[in-house]
Amino acid sequence: MDAELVIVGAGPAGLAAAEIASVHGLNVIVLDEQTKPGGQIFRQPPEGFRVHSWMPDSIYREGKSVLASASTRKNIRWLLGSTVLGTFAAGSNGENSNRIKVVVDTGVLIEEIQTEHLIFATGCHDMAAAFPGWNLPGVMATGGIQAFVKSQQIVPGERFLFVGTHPLQLIVADQVCQAGGHVVGVVFAQQFKRMLSIIRNPFTMLRFSGKFLFLAKTLYRLRNAGVPVSFQESLVRANGDLQVSSIDIASISLDGIVQKNESRRVEADRLGVCYNFLVSSELARQSGAECEWSSQAGGWIVRHNQWMQSSVPGISVAGEVTGVAGADAALEEGRLAALGVLLKKGVLGSTAAARLAEPVRRRLSNINAFAGLLRELSYPGNLLNQLLSDETNICKCEGITAGDIKKALAENSCISSGSAVKLISRTGMGLCQGRYCNYPLTKAIAEYREASENEVGPFTAQFPVKPVLIKKITHKPDEPA
Amino acid sequence: MNKRIFIGVERPAKVPIEINGDLTETYLNESLATALLAFGITVFNRNRQGDCRGPYCNMGTCFECLVGIQQSRPGEEKTEKAEKDERVEKVQWVRACMTPVTEGLSVVVGDSVDTLNNSSIRGRHGR
Ligand SMILES: Cc1cc2nc3c(=O)[nH]c(=O)nc-3n(C[C@H](O)[C@H](O)[C@H](O)COP(=O)(O)OP(=O)(O)OC[C@H]3O[C@@H](n4cnc5c(N)ncnc54)[C@H](O)[C@@H]3O)c2cc1C
Ligand code: FES
């Protein structure tokens, strides 16, 4: 299979890129693991479902219209339910030298697509906080709870508690309430004063009035539903036998210390954890794209130039994978990435491309100002470190604890890279391939060795970036599967 | 309990599926994770350390929601033993949150199932 442009990820970034590229006549293939386009913010209900009022708020209008218009374009081919496992150079010389081979697990078969232009719009996922009890069934990423409600149309629990630092938890708590769930609390670690301080000047308020209005409406509805929203508190542990049944919550002192000895117990069978997001840059890294560390923007973010091109020729990036900034930024970055491809292919001249890019860049810089505030506001800082005990799993897949990591670092004074610690401790070697532990581990090594995170470096991302049945990879096309 | 939302939502017809050998029905195309939650199942597997696990990310990233599936082939007569052997052997571990319900899906799930010790799905570095 061949395409002029291959886009991985059908979220706002991938959709906006696909729309622009297809309007300018390119044949585009869009791949996504999900069975429907939309990405995390617009996780659509399953095939055959009809939801009468789906994400009705006006802040979703632009994204939904891009989704609708991309979905009807004739020269976009959708490969959904398909996981991209990695990329390789298609050939070393001659006419194939610019071509990239994209290896895809379609669910049944492993397929290869060749292209000269690839955009990774692979998004982000919730950051996991490691604390005693975080692996109990019933403890979930808040974004995951939301996807059950908005996409699957199920309220996944009886009594919900949300804990974290990110305002998304207000939105999800509201969605759960509206769907008939019982929310027993939303707990923020920040002081209320600090939350307000991001609106330090009235211009900020005015500039982003749509967002603030939406949050204000959400808070108002939560108040009316009788949901207690508290500040300056943290979770300490989740308790339960086969699944979570209660959560211990403690206040945080003014100097930021969790008062673990004075906790209160809240009964809930579903705990949502919402401390920020981590970028999904494994695929870009496997392809050789350079990354750099950002604690606030989601860990190993992908470097790019002003046309969203990565350090690897032919590979561009857009959306959260360049640093978590939300759906509006993802849309604009997708557009820029597509314009960059059109320029490189010669479909657009440099004047035309610059003219089309100008308003996109203007909007993007405005959105990024807001995204910066939001990141600053929701960054948990050293709070998550305080939640760990030596027995807490850092690597949930292999059961490697914070204590194991400390021991490995103490006993092997010569190792300081993320990949070396992975080899020695087995952290990050399980099924999720380090997606949750790489972030806390990088920070832990940097702190222990008094090095920068960039010196520690990410886990090396290898093919396949997601686990796959070995028999599928070794399967020959003429044999039955 | 986990409750489906019905107000303002139309769903496709229900189709038969099997959970741990029990025949039941659920909505076509909803995720297997949703179907299991709706049946009150919160523990999806026990991992290699023996710990109970259930969905965490609901987006295909964490692999905490693994369950075993086996497409049943209706009409095939089998002894009980042969059926059990086949179940163990032919089980494939899938992410329940990423797997749409199809007719006749047969799922092995729960804290009594020693899932990952017989695992046929492995990370690159899996033991
Ligand atoms: C669970 C969750 C819920 C969220 N809810 C909201 C919300 O309600 N409101 C809000 O403003 N923001 C929300 N966000 C933030 C969200 O990141 C942005 O709003 C927006 O979706 C980002 O757009 P994107 O295109 O960069 O990435 P995404 O929308 O995340 O799209 C990336 C897509 O790439 C696909 N993908 C990744 N890797 C592969 C691979 N290897 N093979 C195939 N496909 C792949 C994914 O399946 C995904 O669909 C949420 C984030 C998460 C993680
Ligand atoms: S719940 Fe994380 S992969 Fe399914």
Greatest contact pair?
Answer: A-B, 62 and 51 residues
Number of H- or I-type helical stretches of chain B: 2
How much helical structure, as a percent, in the residues of chain B? 10-25%
Biggest sheet: strand arrangement of chain B: 4-3-9-7-8
> Number of helix segments of chain A?
16
Query: What strand line-up does the widest sheet of chain A have?
Result: 4-2-1-8-22
Helix-strand pattern of chain B: EEEEHEEEHEE
Radius of gyration of chain B: 15 Å
Care to count the β-strands of chain B? 9
Distance between the termini of chain B: 37 Å
Distinct small molecules: flavin-adenine dinucleotide, FE2/S2 (inorganic) cluster
Low-confidence stretches of chain A: none
Radius of gyration of chain A: 23 Å
How does the SSE layout of this entry go?
The complex is a heterodimer of chains A (481) and B (127).
Chain A: E1 5-8, H1 12-23, E2 28-32, E3 50-51, H2 61-71, E4 76-80, E5 83-89, E6 100-105, E7 110-115, E8 118-120, E9 124-126, E10 139-141, H3 142-150, E11 154-155, E12 159-164, H4 168-178, E13 182-188, H5 192-197, H6 202-207, H7 209-224, E14 229-230, E15 233-240, E16 244-251, E17 264-267, E18 270-274, E19 277-279, H8 282-286, E20 291-294, E21 299-302, E22 315-317, H9 327-345, H10 350-378, H11 383-387, E23 393-395, E24 400-401, H12 402-411, H13 418-425, H14 438-449, H15 453-456, H16 470-474
Parallel strand pairs in A: 1-2, 1-8, 2-4, 8-22, 10-18, 12-13, 12-18, 13-14
Antiparallel strand pairs in A: 5-6, 6-7, 9-19, 15-16, 16-17, 20-21, 23-24
Helix pairs in contact in A: 1-2, 1-9, 3-4, 4-7, 9-10
Chain B: E1 3-4, E2 9-10, E3 14-19, E4 22-27, H1 32-38, E5 45-46, E6 52-53, E7 66-71, H2 80-90, E8 92-95, E9 105-108
Parallel strand pairs in B: 3-9
Antiparallel strand pairs in B: 3-4, 5-6, 7-8, 7-9
The complex binds flavin-adenine dinucleotide and FE2/S2 (inorganic) cluster.
The site of flavin-adenine dinucleotide has 37 residues of chain A, from α1, β2, β5, β9 and α3.
